[in-house]
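Cast an eye over this sequence plus tokens and explain the fold to me:
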Amino acid sequence: KLALIRGQEASLYLEVSVAPLYGEEGQGTGAVAILEDVTEQHQRQREQLAVGWVAAALNYPLDLKETLDTAVEALTAALGADHSAILLADTEHDVLNTEVARGYSEEVTSFAALPTDAPLVPSRAFRTRKVQIASGDAFVDASGHPLLPFLAQEGVQASLAAPLIVQDQAL
């Protein structure tokens, strides 16, 4: 596999197959290569690995805090992320509360509960019950949410949120 890098991250993953070309007398005259874009496959493998690590962490018999700490560590490592967090839904108050986080400053982790109707990726994932990804303009254009300046200070440029559904409830 070959990763083509733009900025800090790989932008494209290629599977490369090369075969030598020989002249009439058996001497090497060149090569032919076939390149296959496997970027989506690579991303799916990383996502599956992350889900597996988090599932394994959640199945380990610990108390809730230890389980979530273990899960966020696994998630951070599996995704190669600088920042990660697990938010739990408080449906009575329609908010998401940060239970555990890695890589964020105290300003971000002590931020007031995130409303479930906020225009941010975790809230959208909770509402839609689907994985949400945002980067670039889609990430920074969140209607001026007060949490965004803190995230920008920490260099956060993209966000991925995946809801965990247990007995038809999003965590």
Q: What stands out?
A: The chain has a mean pLDDT of 78. The longest helix spans residues 39-59.
